[in-house]
Fold this sequence. Notes:
The strands form 2 sheets. Strands 1-2-3-4-5-6-7-8 form an 8-stranded parallel β-barrel, surrounded by 5 helices. Strands 9-10 form a two-stranded antiparallel sheet. It is 38% helix and 16% strand. It has helices at 37-46, 62-71, 85-95, 116-133, 150-159, 170-175, 183-193, 222-239, 274-291, and strands spanning 13-19, 51-54, 75-80, 102-107, 137-140, 165-167, 196-201, 245-250, 260-262, 268-270. Helix 1 packs parallel to helix 2, helix 3 (85-95) packs parallel to helix 4 (116-133) and helix 8 (222-239) crosses helix 9. It is built from 9 helices and 10 strands. By secondary structure, the chain is α/β, with parallel strands linked by helices.
Amino acid sequence: MIKSTRTNDRSPRLDVQMSWWGMNGIRPAEPDHAWDLETKLRFIAEAGFDGVNAFIPEPEEAADWRRLLDQYRLTLSVNAYPKSAEDMVDFIEKLTAYEGTVQYVNAQVLTPFVIDAKAEQLLYDIDRLARDAGIQVFIETHRGTITQDLLRTVQYVNRLPSLRLTIDFSHYVVAGEMRTVSEEAEALLRTLLTRTSSIHARVSNGEQVQVNVGENGEHPMLEHYERWWESGMRHWLAQASGDDRFPFVCELGPPPYAITVDDYGARTEEISDRWAQSLLFAAKARSLWNRIGK
């Protein structure tokens, strides 16, 4: 199985990762400070993150990535965007060059209009290919993908016993305009949480997919996400063993994903500090993990 070997600890543990995509637009205050690969990874490690969620490095960068991940004791997970089983075969072939480096694959399956039996077959094929290759692939709950519809995603989970998910409920909250969370929605979300294999941390308020939760997490929607994150952790721990790692990714996107002041394209300015919010989410994850006794 392709996974990190950064520690000899043989008990399940939390692995808090920083999104590489989320690093866009984040840099130290010094204007002339070099912001190369090593500086970024050191910045992430010194902030206390356990790893990075990124992409398969370009071949010419692979050696540097391996060296620096080992130097700063960081795990690496990567993202895939398959539209077919053949796409997944190609991705897995590229991934074999990084065996022992990549912890798991987060997959956004880019077929939002494939539904029912065809969708189930595609998800089954992706899962089978991953298992045959000995890698971990988690399907992300995400708008604009095969899991964009909450009702259908519950159906896929009920019909595919081995399907594992990356939970990011910000997409369902904004797509469903869940300014409040109904009992019906809560029941459906609980079904998906039983298949939690990783979490992408972002908070939506039902109108905007990524909101500022405040310096100390004052936003009233955060309590819902904390409840879901803790539930996902508990479900994962119930079946974890050995040196399994639970990935919690702080994934706050840059503009135009982030809320901005936008003067018709003339000026785009973020209204929150994504780095500070990422550190807050990391602390929340560790607090929840400690609360459940791990």
